[in-house]
Amino acid sequence: MKIPDPHIIVIFGASGDLTKRKLIPAIYQLFVNNHLPAHFAILGTSRTLLTDDEFRQRITEFITFPEGPDLKFLSKIYYQTIDYDRNDDYISLKTRLNDLKINLNIPANYLFYLSTPPNLYDQIPEKLAFANLHLQSDGFKRLIIEKPFGNNLNSAISLNISLLKNYEENQIYRIDHYLGKETVQNLMVTRFANGIYEPVWNRNFISRVEITSAESLGVEGRGGYYDHSGAMRDMIQNHLLQMVGLVAMEPPVVIEANAIRHEVMKVFQSLRPIQPEDIANQVIRGQYTASTIKGIATAGYREEPGVDQLSHTETYVAMKFFIDNWRWAGVPFYIRTGKKLPTRVTEIVIEFKPAPHHLFVQDGRNQNAPNQLIIRIQPDEGLLLKFNVKEPGAGFKVNQVNMDFHYSELGNVQLPAAYERLILDCLSGDATLYSRGDTVEAAWTFIQPILDAWSNDPTIPIYGYPAGTWGPYESDGLLDGEMTWRYPCKNLSDDGLYCEL
Ligand code: BG6
After folding, report:
1. Which residues pair with 143 in a beta bridge?
2. Pick from 501, 471, 490, 492: which is nearest to 294 by CA?
3. Catalytic sites, residue numbers
4. pLDDT tens digit string along 133-164?
5. Ligand 1 atom 10: the closest Cα is on which residue?
């Protein structure tokens, strides 16, 4: 793997939670695994007054060092206080970067990571440009913008316009950490490196696609943010639709940023808009209520700190939609996500049409259950194919069995954290796993009418579901006929017999 050029990573929002939980640990892993060049530095910035040493001290609390603090790593970390509104502070930032550059023998390759509240996503890049820190004549200047990219379609469009005033599209890296997950990338390999799947990956053989991203946690102290967001903005607009894009796209010509993002864009352009009169039936929203989980009393969403006591924010969404193109015409896509569900699991279920001729009938019922391919994103990452076999003995009794692959079987292979992969890709100038501006807008275009209907039409219900259950009953009604959602367990193939949640 190519090591990126020497660089400085500037983290805005360095005293925040994301820096602590994800960014610094990811950069440290890249460092210990020798993916970073000998010359690099991290400059944390935020409003908090801290010295370099105080920031380094904080960092030691974020990382588990196997053999005591790693002084070599800590020596690469610096800190600068900033008032995000003050032009002068960006000039001081430039001076500081210049000093580091000269002292550490690093060219002016700067990655600016915006891990701040979203209202600063246009201001910081603009002020960096004011200090000429966007010009690439002396080295690369790249921005990583955290989610949410906009709070609705209009704000996403405005943010794109504002960024593109000073930066080229290829300097802007809009992060969606789901694309950094090894198993999400494996979706492309499963589809396009195997001869057996692609010929049947279409409306002639697939009866439906189902994507679940369930979380057992609630809002965990993020009530203030979440209550203005909700599951549609927090998970569907980005993570779930990106997975839909990878499941449904046409094979790209090459594995390269624009080729792949172009195919995802075509999928988003083919999403059939959900008409206002269909929203109540095709999109179910829910909110968790107080209950008892495994004997422990659990608060409802409205009792969470930072949440309005009369909040109508959804903590659960299930929806049905169609992709109007040759490959997917008529195939329903069902997606759902929620907080305080029974377990944490993300998986994609491809359900194939049953065998057309019913040879094996028992008690008047067809026995061939449809084949399913389950692509497990997390946990117990792997693939599961469900198919029918003959039960040994007299007659022809058919049973469904599992053929499974678990990443854990690969021995001591450790799946890198999503942020490791994404930060490394950005440092190498590879935007394949980042969202392009137009695809982000296309995803907003699809969900905006739903958000509008929810805020304008008080007759569209928000259903309560007890914390620790699989969401409102009404979401079962989305599925056609006798179909049900697959209710996944923690372990990929433990279904039917014993299920650990
Ligand atoms: C984040 C959302 O983008 O994704 C969180 O803001 C959510 O609300 C998280 O919990 C889920 O990510 P993961 O990687 O734990 O599935």
Report:
1. 112, 172
2. 501
3. 239
4. 999 999 999 999 999 999 999 999 999 999 99
5. 215
